[in-house]
Amino acid sequence: MNFLLLDPKNFIVAVNPEEDAGDQTVYVREEARGRGVGSAIVAALLRQHAVRHGGAALPRTFLLTLADTTRFYERLGFRAADAAALPLTMRLELLAGSAIQALLGGRLVAMQFGGADGDGSSSNGAPT
Questions:
Q1: DSSP E strands: which ranges in the chain?
Q2: How many CB atoms are located within 10 Å of the residue 61 CB?
Q3: How far apart are CA 48 and CA 42, in angstroms?
Q4: Which residues contact 85 (CB under 8 A, 6 or more apart)?
Q5: Angle value at C-alpha 15, between 123 and 113, nearest 5 degrees
Q6: Which pLDDT does position 94 carry in this prediction?
Q7: pTM of the complete model beyond 0.85
Q8: Quick one: 109 exposed, middle or buried, by C-beta within 10 A (0-12, 13-18, 19+)?
């Protein structure tokens, strides 16, 4: 359903049904940003992740993103994550990605949703 009445030509969602929501990439074309597309996609992925894990409570979820996009994810309830808390494969991806980003003048950041410090989520585990 297209609750936001957005033109589907402005975004592409690629999903591998064999992968969990934590293994997805979200990108919204610059000209379509600021209209709620990215927020809607991330909220849907978080709801899907909660369902796959058998309940209304969302398990701790991690993501890697560029430093200049952290405000977007913070508005959705994510917060900075300690690299030591990441699953091993994601830690390795953070190390490799950080080296590449350093060469490109960027910085890769780990973030998490949920966990011991509260998660900023609604009862169904999705950001409000």
A1: 61-66, 79-80, 108-113
A2: 24
A3: 10
A4: 62, 112, 115
A5: 35
A6: 93
A7: no
A8: buried
